[in-house]
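User:
I would dearly like some help making sense of a protein record. Take your time, and here it is.
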Amino acid sequence: MNTETIEKTDSKLEKEEVKHVVLYNDDVNTFDHVINLLIKVCNHDSIQAEQCATLVHYKGKCSVKSGSFDELKVISEILADNGLTVEIN
């Protein structure tokens, strides 16, 4: 890799900063509802979805998806429209 390629790669990473959808705990949604949404919307497998739901329950929040802001905006809107409390960080 030459210097020019490295510089282009570095500038691309800066422009596409990695963001996270953070899911917060609430007293409304059931574990099953949260798990099902994480599977359908975030493409988690059942074990990953269950682990995230458990972390949210005990720790108060959990990052459930990473990516660019544009792709996470749609995901966070779908989760919020289904009653979950989320934000993009």
About this structure: Strands lie at 19-24, 61-67, 85-88. The chain has four helices and three strands. The mean pLDDT is 89.
